[in-house]
Write a structure and sequence with these properties.
338 residues, alpha/beta, 4-stranded antiparallel β-sheet, 13 helices, disordered C terminus, binds adenosine-5'-triphosphate, ABC_transpr_CbiO/EcfA_su
């Protein structure tokens, strides 16, 4: 477990770049830190792995302050993936690279060799390949593999998908997801809200060195106050769902709640069937006998849907104090007419 208790931090001892930051990351969590440039996300990661010490408050790893842990103990507990794999890779071959962490910890031996072999097989690496000649995505995978070969219980990923194309991003994140499913705690800094939405269970949003929201991913990414304060754009499907909810008063709840392509497609498929627009109380009872009258279907243009859902909506065309103009009679030939 990682705990930040009222943590402040500074690089020069004077200017606070983190102010009174508190949160807890439990074992097995998958947390994404989001926020604009300079919000303090990377600084928070440096505090997690002990590269930076708090100027006030405490950072505890399994109850022990980072200041009381040796660098090797921290390295065993927390694997750190830098944004740029070239800051991490330093050996002449893939195999050497994967053995590097064991050597640094003084843990070379048959067990280390066996774990390196297993990782080489799992990732399909060529052990004698020169790391710097690999493409960007494979170098990122190698940097990630060189961390997970040490099997730390926590991995910290600073912008793990920056500079990767879609396929490379999917490959790296699939490995991260599998690790998390096997129990590894994942803490990730990420600017890509599509990746955050697809993978993280929880989001901590920061701005100007403070935590402004901490909760389930889509609760945070749907909160208009948080979006405004952190200048974050939600994932595209969520943005569409929020826009439909805002613009279309009769927007069915499952459409407004959709956060994935599948959820949106399913919700729209249901909404476009005959009775989807009617409020629950007026929807036909599936157990009803056939001779019971059913409510009429809304028109394709949504007008029927509006009428069904908002029977008491004031007539926008009525001037105050004047009677509303007479209603236009229903066109019996119109689609969806009652
Ligand atoms: N090594 C450093 N020395 C001095 N100030 C720094 C250093 N690193 C970051 N800062 C400052 O600390 C503040 C927080 O920066 P940090 O890198 O933690 O933000 P961030 O949210 O990770 O931003 P980004 O998304 O751009 O990486 C910024 O004002 C930044 O200029």
């Amino acid at each position: 477990m990682i705990e930040f208790k009222n943590v402040s931090a500074s690089y020069d001892g004077e200017l606070a770049v983190l102010r009174d930051v508190s949160f807890t990351v439990s074992d097995g969590d998958f947390v994404a830190f989001v926020g604009t440039n300079g919000a303090g996300k990377s600084t928070t990661m440096r505090l997690v792995n002990g590269l930076l010490k708090p100027t006030a408050g405490e950072v505890l790893i399994d109850g022990v302050p980072t200041g009381a842990l040796k660098t090797s103990e921290l390295a065993r507990r927390i694997g750190f993936l830098f944004q740029n794999p070239d800051r991490q890779i330093c050996c002449a071959t893939v195999r050497e690279e994967l053995l590097f962490g064991f050597r640094a910890l003084g843990e070379e031996g048959p067990e280390a060799e066996a774990r390196v072999d297993a990782v080489i097989e799992r990732f399909g690496f060529s052990p004698d390949a020169e790391p710097f000649l690999l493409n960007r995505g494979t170098r990122q995978l190698l940097a990630l593999a060189s961390i997970i070969v040490l099997a730390p219980p926590v991995i910290v990923l600073d912008e793990p998908t920056t500079g990767l194309d879609f396929r490379e991003c999917e490959k790296v994140m699939a490995v991260v997801r599998e690790l998390n499913e096997q129990g590894t705690t994942v803490i990730m800094v990420c600017h890509d809200m599509e990746v955050v939405g697809d993978f993280a269970d929880r989001v901590i949003a920061m701005t100007a060195g403070r935590v402004v929201a901490d909760g389930p991913t889509f609760e945070v990414l749907r909160d208009p106050a948080v979006l405004a304060e952190t200048h974050i754009l939600p994932p595209q499907i969520t943005a569409i769902a929020l826009a439909l909810e805002r613009e279309l008063p009769a927007c069915p709840a499952p459409v407004a709640a959709a956060n994935t392509v599948d959820a949106m497609a399913d919700a729209l498929a249901v909404a476009t069937t005959a009775d989807a627009g009617a409020p629950a109380a007026e929807r036909p009872d599936p157990t009803a006998t056939p001779d019971r009258p059913e409510p009429a279907a809304p028109g394709r243009d949504g007008a029927g849907m509006l009428d069904e859902l908002e029977p008491d909506r004031p007539d926008q065309t009525a001037a105050p104090g004047r009677p509303a103009p007479a209603a236009v009679p229903d066109n019996p030939n119109a689609e969806g007419a009652r």
